Structure formats: structure tokens, C-alpha cells
Amino acid sequence: MFTDSTSTSSASTVASGHASLMRRADAAGQRLFRELVASRIAWGTVSEISRLVACDVVSFAVRTSTCTHRAPCTLHHCQTSLRVRAVLGNRGPRMPGLVVVHDAGMGGRVLEQALPESCDDYCEVVTDPHLRDIVGREEGIAGLTAVPVAFGGEVRAVVYVGMRHRGVPSATVVEALTRVCTYAGAAMAAARDRARVEEIAAQRERRRLARALHDELGQRLFGIGILANSVLKGATSGRPDLLAQIEGLTREVAGTTAALRTTLKQLDTPPTPAGAVAVMLREHTAAFRERTGLPAHLVVLGEETSLDGDRADALVRSVQEGLRNADRHAHAREVVVTLAFDAEGVEAAVHDDGVGVTTGATQGFGLRTLSEELARMGGDLRLSRGDDTGSTLRARIPWR
After folding, report:
1. What is the reported pLDDT for 4?
2. Which CATH architecture has domain 276-398?
3. What is the mean pLDDT of residues 112-125?
4. In Å, what is the CA distance from 361 to each residue of 95, 331, 351, 357, 384?
5. How would you classify the pairing of strands 57-64 and 81-88?
6. What are the structural domain ranges in the chain?
7. Which terminus, N or C, of the chain has the lesser number of Cβ atoms within 10 Å?
8. Residue with the larger pLDDT of the pair 349 and 202
């Protein structure tokens, strides 16, 4: 039996295009797990979709409540409306924050049915005049597709993809959008779980501090009260040991002050968990890459170890300063950030392949300030020129 070579080639091209779009959709969805914060997931989703498919407007609307309960109401059965949290491509100011109630618009139906929906002329299908005025007239959107952001059987948000002309996307495009939104739903679920874990950890820490204050300061204050009453009685009766009692009271006050200072210091400077510095540097490197368009990479060497807040902050700010200098002065084509852990300490460095620092150049205010801060921790900050080209800013801090 013979087949039409033209139709076979066309089918192969379509299949290849479908597979390519699905791979891009998977990659876009996986990138959403870099930031497990709901607001950043919303912005990340609209950004990824705007690059994935051809469209004019993309918005991300999360479930919200319009009930009369005390705000914010978190009861699931009350969260029947949608509020736009992130939007790209809008013309007017009314799209951000727009609320879609459960019985109006495509989003309400998608929220209830958990299925994507498309229309080729939004103004013909919407019944709410407020939505028609903003979406149809002000934004000029005709073709609109709404896709549920769902995971674990729960619709957490709805993504709108709009065009300023009539038409609906192909089934392949809707499938790709659904894939990205499924990843977004999983990321939102993970973000919620992480927020719960962090809240539980915060509650445990508050209880630990309450016990510490009760056991340490409570007992000391109780002792101070007894001594104060004894001093008061001695003062009125002319007892000869009054001076010794006053000295004891002074020692108790000093001990209580020291205990309070220790407790407050523990509360103010919690350790940064292992891996947290790498996560922060990865965020700053990605932001630099998006802002400048230059290739930028983070390389982590050695076994990541937890750092106290001051050391972690100093390393992160050193990398930020190095990235700023690379952007402003280096004229570089590529930047590499390294974070290295060894037995003696931790080092963060920013390498660029630009013009290199001028020999004998003086440090600016930012570098001087960082250098002084690192010196107080026993570390140092060095800015050096490469053998052939480029510059390297290194910040090193010892463990002790």
C-alpha cells in the first residue's frame, strides 16, 4: 500500500512541533519551582507563558473571598471569586487587582469545572458589564482562553491568555498552557506547605523563647522581688546587713540584664540554614542575567554549611556589589559567581571577562564598607585583575 509522502511529511512536522512545544512547556513549568512564594509564582507563570505562546495579554488570578467574614477569610467554600495578582501586556490600570465573582465571566466557570475554556469574542459571551468594559473595551481583548491552575484536585487560580483579535488557540497550545498551569498549581501547593512548615517552626521558636524567658528571667525576677522586700524591711528596721542585701540585689539585676541580652541576641541573629546562601545567590545571579542579558552562572563548591546571619548577609552583599560593578564598568560578555566551602571558611567570588580593573584603582564607598565589615569578622575582600582579561571580586570569611 502506498502513502502520500506530502501528508506523511506534514504529519511528521506537526508531531515534531507538538513535542517541541510540550518540552518547552515542561521546562517553563519546572522553572516555577525556583521560587516557592505565591506572589512570585504568579509573576513567574505569566512571564513564562508570554514567552511560550504568542499572545497579547496574560494574567494570573488567584482564588479570593468576597464574603462578610473577617479578612482575610481562608475558608475554602468562601473563596469562590478570583482576583488578578499578576498581568503582562495590559494597556490600562484597572486589570491589576480586578475581581471576578463566581457567577460572572469565564473564570468563574473554569473555577467550578476545573477545565480550560476559550472564546473568540469575549464581549459576546460575558454578561458582567464591568468586565466587558475593562477586558473588552479598555484592553481590547477579543479571543480569550482561561486555564485552571490546579493540583491535587483543587483549583488554586486561573490563568487568562488574551488576544486583541478574534480567534481561539489550537488544542496543542491549550495543552501546553495546561501543562504550565499544572506545574504552577504544584508550585503553589508546595509554597503553601512550606509556609505552613515555617509558621509551625516560628510557633515552636516562640514557645521556646517563652520557656527560656520564664525559666531564666522569671526566676531571677522572682528573686529580685524577694530581695527588694527584704531590703525594704531592713531599711525600716535599721538592720546592719542592709548594705549586703543591696549588693545582692545589684548582682541579681546585673544577672537578669545579661540573661535578657543573651536571649535577645539569640532572637535577633538566627543561623542561616545550609543551602540558603546558595539560593539567595542563585536569585541574584538570575536577576542579573534577566536585567543585563549577559550569561551569568552560579557554581557551588564543597559541602554547604549553615552560616550565622551576619556572615551570610556579608557574602550576599559582596556578590551583589560584584554584579553591580560587572554591569556598570566591566563591559563583560559573561559572569560567573562561585560559592566555595572548605575546612577553614567560605568564599564568594564574582568573575567577569571584561576589561579588567585598572591597576592601582581606589575602592569605591561600597567596597570599602564591605571590606571593613568583613575585616571585623576576620575575613577580607579582594578585587583583582585577571592574567589576560577580566576582574575577580573575592569575599572570604573564616568559620571562627
Report:
1. 44
2. 2-Layer Sandwich (3.30)
3. 90
4. 50, 17, 18, 7, 10
5. antiparallel
6. 5-195, 213-268, 276-398
7. N
8. 349
- Locus of grid cell 580593573: 357
Q: For the chain, how far is it from start to end, CA to CA, in angstroms? A: 79
Query: What is 339-395 written as a DSSP string?
Result: EEE-SSEEEEEEEE-SS-PPTTPPP-HHHHHHHHHHHHTT-EEEEEE-SSS-EEEEE
Q: How far is CA 272 from CA 89, 187, 248, 275, 390, in A?
A: 38, 23, 40, 8, 32
- Cα–Cα distance between 135 and 127 in angstroms, integer? 12
Whether the bond between 148 and the residue before it is cis, its omega within 30 degrees of 0, is: no
CATH code assigned to 5-195: 3.30.450.40
Q: Three-state SS for 79?
A: coil
d(CA 244, CA 204): 41
* Greatest mean pLDDT range, 98-107, 212-221, 243-252: 98-107
Q: Which helix (H) or strand (E) holds 204?
A: helix 171-212
pLDDT of residue 66: 66
Q: What is the DSSP letter of 307?
A: B
Q: What would the grid cell of residue 177 be?
A: 498552557
Kind of pairing between the strands at 143-151 and 335-341: unpaired
User: Bigger pLDDT: 12 or 346?
Assistant: 346
Is pLDDT of 216 > 80?
Answer: no
Q: Give one word for 63, left, alpha or beta, with left for phi > 0 and alpha for psi -120 to 50.
A: beta
**H/E stretch holding 266:** helix 242-268
Residue 51 grid coordinates = 514567552
Inter-residue contact 192 to 227 (CB < 8 Å): no
Query: Model confidence over 156-178: pLDDT tens digits?
Result: 899 999 999 999 999 999 999 99
φ/ψ bin of 169: left (φ > 0), alpha (ψ from -120 to 50), beta (otherwise):
beta
